[in-house]
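Incident log entry.

Two folding requests arrived from the same account within the same minute. Monitoring flagged them as a possible duplicate submission, but the sequences differ. Recording both here for audit purposes.

Request one:
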Amino acid sequence: MIRRMRLKDERAVLALATLCHPGEPAKAARWYSHEHRTLVYERDGAIIGYTTYGMTPDHHAFGRDVGVHPDWRGKGIGGELHGHRLIEAKERGAVAFVGITPASNPSMVKILEGWGGLKTIATAEGDCYVNTLGEEV
């Protein structure tokens, strides 16, 4: 089940973020602000995936992170989470979604392209993909 993160999920999400992205400090405060949202994938009471996104004043959404527990990777969970964040962002008024990922992360490239993301430019952080949030989302 995919749902919004609750305060009681903080420890589980922080642990999962640390497992998925060792060496990168997790920024939980951002997840609770009105500008950023976190969605979690829960199965049998355990958080096995999460995604975060934010919104800009000009109605663009941007991806912050997608993380899936290693035991659950390759089962489409990351793609489901990304799809839900696109839908929720559109419902909140977003007209486009921007995601950046390095080419060295083929799983995220596949997710972004699979949901219609078009590669636009390369940045220092990675390749930039843009989704126009039209009727098809």
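Request two (distinct sequence, not a duplicate):
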Amino acid sequence: MTLIEFHAMLGETIMYCQTIENDLKWIYSFMKKGKVEDNFDSIDGRTLGQVLKQLKELDRSDSKQYISSSDYNFLSQMTEKRNFWCHQAYTEFVYIEDFYNSKEYNNICSKLIRDHDKLAIVSKSVENVRLQALKDYR
């Protein structure tokens, strides 16, 4: 993988993380009693972990659970993945001379591909849940 391809895939991976987080906030906002916009504003500045905790409590209190326990576990792990890609990924290889040929760069590229592909699927799934929650609660 070239560095330009790495940049592009990393950018898309971060985009998936951001859309997942935003969709989860909207799902919470639809499900919580009150005005949707006020609900969204009340959690907009919260961390993904805080949003997940509140959404999980709300989701389990309803007869129609939107997100499974295993999906909540993955979403919790996503916080670590997002933090790694945003704050650490480049330092794994960028200081290595001729890093293109290093095992560190090859390992990080493989990890990026795995996380990117998984997050692409999760992003679409969470978007579908957001759209269903919009229909159910509007």
